[in-house]
Structure formats: structure tokens, C-alpha cells
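lol ok so funny story. i was supposed to be doing the assay writeup but got distracted and ended up predicting the structure for this chain instead. priorities right. anyway since i did it might as well share w the group, maybe its usefull for someone
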Amino acid sequence: MDILSLGEKIKKLRKEKNMTLKELAGDRITAAQISHIERDKSHTSYELLDYLSRKLEVSIDYLLETKEMQSKKITDNLILRSEIYIKSNELDKAEQLINQVLQICKEYKLLDKNGKCNFLLGSINLKRENYALVVNNFEKALYFFIKNNDKENIFKSYLNIGKIYVKEEFYKGAISHFEFAEEVLSESQIEDMDIHKDLYGNMANCYIKLNKSKKSLEYIEKINKIDRQNNMQEEVDMLTLKANNFLNIGKYDDAKECFKKALELLEIEENKAGIVDVYLTISDIYKELGDINKVLEYSHKAYNIKKDDEDEYASKSLYKIIAAYLENKDFESARIYCKMALAFSIKSKNKFNEYKALELFSDIHKAQNENNLAIEYLSKCIKIISDLGDNNTLAKIYIDLGQLYANISKEKELEYYQKGVAIYQTLNII
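and the output, tada:
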């Protein structure tokens, strides 16, 4: 990965082939002339370069590449490698590569790469939840993107800063940056509708937090309009398989196009999760508005995207569906989806999700005044949570059991209340 002058390249190649100066010179020139060339003390003709390239078994283009040209190619590939590391959550490796790029950029004055590097550092700090640094990184990136009129990355920077402000519950600041992002989006040629939905979902969420329901629903309608226009189902399994194949190639330094394809495939999967997040956010908005049918609609949309993956997003969607059916008193539907959630958790060996599914079964029976069955399911939760060592949740289960025993056994009611309170006291909660 060294950035070499013409002379340094020739010397390196000669050494790799165990050739002496005289052997490389042959009958064409003298060993002294080769020595001068290797020390960049003399210029070479095209004919001599042709001779040297054949002797060293490389292309003339390789020999002619300047340090600046090499630095651009190397930084391009390092950036792509770092992006793959970020997607794979190997954040320290990604940060190390980006710092290498920044050093090369400084040495060879490649200012156009500074924006991308700062953006990637922001992405790393976002995954690390270091939000103060994230905003600083994205604001630095914005400076360079605006300077280069890079609309797509200007949009992404505003969007990401807005998302940080949402996490910090600074909704007015978030809306301000989302509006900047929306303005850039309207001026650009960004056609990826998932990007539009991500922005509109975040804006809808902020407006509902600011008690501006009408504005929130306007952006939900924009998402609905996109869904009506773009109803294509991604072949997730095939894309994931292709992504893994690209990542397994491993020829990072000389495979820029391979990096790009691998990255695109990884981003497709990431966008899928992003859209699920949007649908689940909309579901929460409608829950606050009291529209349970809409909660079900968007929770089902989220679940339909991720159901084949059987991951945390699928589970999260199922829990929202079950809670909505419970609120609508559709106990049969709630029970069906609860069975699915329990099957997912057992298959994935996720004990906490198994607990949540059992707790929902208990809630279903409790809502139907079947307290003995509710107690039975909640009692199964005790061992799971005890094994996980989650004392806070264990205390909650004991309190819930105390409430269920209220009209069954005063002795049991008091026993479980005391157990729950004792744990809360050890946790300094009460």
C-alpha cells in the first residue's frame, strides 16, 4: 500500500525479482543510469519505460502513475474497506483505516475525501452512542460536502444530525435539520424511496412528540403514497448470499468494484431494517393518537418485511401486533401471534424474548379474567429471568403476581409483593 515515486517503484520491483542493476540495464542502458532513475535523479523516455515495464513485468500505466494518482486510488479503497468494517461492526478497524486516509489526504491535499472521512467517523461514533462526537463529525462533513455541492451526502448529514437530536429528545432542533434535509432532497436527484421514507418517518415522529398531530399525519401520508407507488419485494436471501460472497473475496487493495458491490448489498439489508424502524415508529405515533387499527396496519407491514429473518425486528413487530390485538380485545388473534413470538424465541434461543412471549400470554388470560392461567404463565417467567440475573424484571414479575393473587389468596398476594419490594430495595429503587 506504499505510495511510491517512479524510481522507488522500479527499485522495489527489481529487488522483488532479485535482479541486479546490471541485469535490469541489460544491453539497453548502463547500471549507473538505472541507479539514477531509481533515485529519481533523471527522467526516462517512453521507449525506456516500455523496456523497463517488459523487464519488470508490469504495465507502463503502473510506472507512470504519480503519487497523487496512487493516493487517490489507495484512499478510495481504504474508504470502501472502512465502510464494510462499519457495516460489520468492526469499528476499531474502520477508525484505524479512516485515520490512515486522513493522513494521506493531508499529505497529498486530497480535500474532497475529508467530508467522507468525517461522515464515516460520525457513523462510527453513532454506533458507539458517542452523540457529542457524532454531531461534531457530521457538521465537519457538512462543511466539505457543501463546498463540493455533494447533495446526497449533504442530505445524509442533515438527516443523521436530526436523528441524534431525536435521541436526545431535542425535537425542535431535529425538525430544523430534517427540514434542511427535505429541502436538499427536493433539489436533488435521489431516487431511493427508502431514503425518502426514512426522512418522513422521522419527521412524523418529531411532530407527534411536539403535539402537532396534523403535521405528523401529513408525513405519514407521504410514506403511504410512496408505498402505493413502489410495491416491490426485495429478494432478501439472495442479496444476503451475494453480500457474503463479496465479503469473502478479501482482495481489498485491487478490487474497488468488488467493494462497491459488497457495500451496496450490505446497504440494501440495512435499508430494509431502516424501513422497519420507520413502520414501527409510525405504529407508535398512531398508538399515541389512539388509532389501534393503524397501529396494527403498520406493525403488520414491519413484520411482513422481517418475518423470514426471524430476528429482533420480527420479534419487536410481533409484540406490537399482540399488544394492539389485546387493546382491541381480539384475544384469539393475540394468542395466534403470541404463539409465533414464542416459537421465534425458542428457535433463536433468546431467553428474554421467550419471557416476553410468556408474559404476553399471561396478559391475554388476565384480560379475559382467567387469573389462574395468567399466574401459570407468569410463574414460568420467574425461572427464565432468575437465570438471566435480571433482578429489576424479576421484581416486576413478583409485583404482577401479587396483583393477580389479589382476589385468589391474600397470603400469596402478600408473599409476592414482599419479594418484589425486597428486590427493589436492594436495587435502591425504593
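The radius of gyration is 30 Å. The domain at 346-430 is CATH 1.25.40.10 (Serine Threonine Protein Phosphatase 5, Tetratricopeptide repeat).
back to the writeup now i swear
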